[in-house]
Amino acid sequence: MSKKQLIMESSLELFAKQGFEATSVQQITEHAGISKGAFYLSFKSKDELIIGLIDHFMLEFISNIDHVVKNHSNNKNLLSEFYKAAFHSFQKHSDFAKIFIKEQSQTVNEELLTKMHHYDKLFDKIILGMLERLYGEEVRHTKYDLIYCVKGFFHTYSHLFLFFNVPQDITRLSRSLAEKTALLAKHAETTFITDELYHTFNEPVNEIQNKEQLLEMIDQKLEEINDPTIKESFILLKQHVIEPNLSPAIAKGLTLNLKNHAECKQISYLLQQYLEL
């Protein structure tokens, strides 16, 4: 385990017990068994660590759902598979999910709020694409309302699992919510969130800011990863980002190689978005 991973795992345990604000860098370093100097070699501040945790977990959450939606060929049960993937991701990282939900309602940190808003909009984008694929013109006037309905279903039932220990039958729940979503999509007529209203408080979202940021992330992974096949995929993709020289099929294949590696799922998603694969 790298020093950075050790810090993230140790801090997560403390954040789950005490929250972000009540946990100090001193407590994190003591819990991880490292010096403060070692901490600051990995993160410039506690705030940067918190942003790093959010990026790590939320990118995995978003990339998993995006993969299911884009690669599931059977529209008949796509909604059910979407809900299932979302609930399984939150279940897998339940400790972080609890922190994330609590801190959203309590934080006054502007950078943290901006980061949370960013991932919320990525979630919107995936839901919108799925609804348009499944229902097309049927939801032309209601699709933005439906985004909030889908997120409302997900957040409400997630609370039941995370905070009230309700028995988990995710397959049954996913089928139930898929039925309800389909009914709303096909029969709802009155809409509150119109296209105009939605875009007045939602800026267009970009998955990654610029080429330099992506190249920096690739270089970091090249230092961390030992697998020669994964390293070669990163090298080829880095060259392609700098100066496109691969066919879309080859570039997509390389990003899928990365996705199958546990530590590379997030950057695989970012590369696919950046390269529009």
Automatic annotation (TrEMBL):
It holds the Pfam family TetR_N. It comes from Fictibacillus phosphorivorans. It comes from the Bacteria. Coiled coil: none annotated. Residues 1-61 form the HTH tetR-type domain. The lineage of its organism: Bacteria, Bacillati, Bacillota, Bacilli, Bacillales. This is Transcriptional regulator. Signal peptide: none annotated. Keywords: DNA-binding. SUPFAM superfamilies: Homeodomain-like. The keyword Ribonucleoprotein does not apply. InterPro entries: Homeodomain-like_sf, HTH-type_Tx_Regulator, HTH_TetR. Residues 24-43 bind DNA. GO terms for molecular function: DNA binding. The keyword DNA-binding applies.
